[in-house]
Structure to design on (440 residues):
């Protein structure tokens, strides 16, 4: 970082290798907050066994976490724009550690919910800052950069799922919360000292402009007035709801299907179906985010959405019909998360393409709140499953994904192109009119 004469801190210079280092540090920070969402499912039944609060009441903590994580991102993004990413990520590191420390001592639902709020604030601070920073450093590879950063969040839990499950079994879930909470928070806090934004705006490469990309930087109020933003928001909610439900409920689903502890052998590895599924889910999720981001950089955002959302619907349908078969459960959930996670690379990239780079952190933060809206449906899944079974929950999720796939291709694609071309034409006409007035 470089200090100006008035004491303000300016951003890092534009160096090609430096931006890849920034991306790598952002990925590691994201990996450190992954367990707050994707490792949660391992704690649900042990907490219920200890306190008998009921799954629905315990899963409300998950919803509170996601709502807090997402809906506060625009506010945290404002702090990033004003004070830089370092202080916001440091704050995030402290909060995620405090959250799991409180979880380890929680002897009431009130304390569990308080920890969820604190964890959501911390995770949102890290998530929004790292994705926004990636969009600013890589306007020429927005899909890949957002996908790689989001992959840290998607796959970050893959390496720790087995250790956490083992620690829960041997030492209790409280010890697992305490140990991993402190470790994850410390790593984020340290990395925060080295994360910086670019000093200057980096223009996208001309060869990338086969993708619709605006030349105008829209302010957050302008974005909120654009109908295309709300259509994108709706589709985000439709797809995210199924993924969040599956991520939060995968352990209860496996237990209800009576396959959680059934051994499954794949590619020479043998594990209990639930542990195998969660581990593969994180790997496929992590791989899918940069992969689909890269694909979208080449074939277009909406075309990629159609492929991914359609595949997600097919996998959920498979789970509904054959999820009670252990190997099908493992493979179908893995493929599902492989295509589900791309929403966290495609929507930020699409947002940056549509509304520009200057306010990318805040604009993407506003769109990211759709995840929080979707999380409100997670406890509802427990209620529906208790009444109608998990098949009914899967059928609803299939319908949402299939509809989202069609909307991406036939609604978002033409609306977004029309918005970009229309606004650029308005800007050009205004510039021409101003020039004529000045000449006259």
């Amino acid at each position: 970082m470089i200090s100006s004469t008035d004491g303000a801190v300016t951003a890092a210079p534009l160096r090609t290798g430096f931006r890849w280092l920034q991306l790598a540090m952002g990925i590691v920070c994201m990996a450190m907050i992954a367990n707050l969402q994707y490792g949660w499912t391992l704690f649900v039944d042990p907490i219920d066994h200890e306190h008998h609060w009921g799954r629905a009441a315990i899963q409300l903590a998950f919803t509170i976490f996601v709502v807090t994580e997402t809906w506060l991102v625009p506010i945290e993004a404002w702090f990033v724009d004003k004070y830089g990413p370092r202080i916001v990520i440091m704050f995030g590191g402290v909060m995620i550690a405090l959250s799991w420390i409180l979880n380890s001592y929680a002897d009431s639902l009130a304390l569990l919910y308080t920890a969820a709020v604190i964890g959501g604030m911390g995770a949102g601070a890290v998530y929004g800052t790292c994705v926004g920073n990636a969009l600013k450093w890589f306007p020429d590879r927005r899909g890949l950069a957002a996908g790689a950063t989001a992959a840290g969040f998607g796959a970050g839990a893959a390496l720790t799922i087995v250790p956490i499950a083992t620690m829960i079994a041997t030492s209790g879930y409280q010890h697992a919360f305490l140990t991993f909470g402190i470790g994850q928070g410390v790593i984020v806090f340290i990395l925060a000292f080295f994360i910086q934004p670019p000093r200057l705006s980096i223009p996208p490469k001309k060869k990338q402009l086969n993708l619709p990309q605006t030349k105008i930087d829209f302010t957050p109020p302008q974005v909120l007035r654009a109908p295309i933003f709300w259509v994108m928001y709706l589709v985000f909610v439709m797809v995210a709801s199924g993924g969040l439900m599956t991520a939060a409920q995968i352990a209860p689903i496996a237990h209800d299907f009576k396959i959680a502890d059934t051994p499954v052998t794949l590619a020479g590895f043998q594990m209990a179906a639930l542990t195998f599924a969660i581990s593969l889910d994180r790997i496929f999720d992590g791989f899918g985010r940069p992969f689909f981001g890269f694909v979208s950089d080449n074939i277009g955002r909406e075309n990629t959405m159609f492929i991914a959302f359609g595949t997600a619907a097919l996998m959920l349908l498979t789970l509904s019909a054959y999820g009670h078969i252990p190997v099908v459960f493992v493979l179908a959930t893995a493929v599902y998360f492989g295509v589900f996670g791309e929403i966290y690379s495609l929507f930020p990239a699409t947002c940056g393409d549509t509304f520009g780079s200057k306010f990318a952190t805040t604009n993407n933060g506003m769109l990211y709140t759709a995840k929080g809206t979707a999380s409100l449906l997670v406890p509802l899944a427990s209620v529906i499953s208790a009444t109608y079974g998990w098949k009914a929950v899967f059928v609803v999720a299939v319908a949402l994904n299939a509809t989202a796939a069609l909307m991406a291709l036939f609604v978002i694609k033409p609306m977004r192109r029309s918005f970009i071309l229309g606004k650029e034409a308005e800007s050009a006409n205004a510039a021409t009119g101003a020039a004529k007035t000045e000449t006259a």
Residues 16-193 form a domain with the Growth Hormone; Chain: A; fold (CATH 1.20.1250.20). The chain is about 80% helix and 5% strand. Residues 1-11 have pLDDT under 50 and may be disordered.
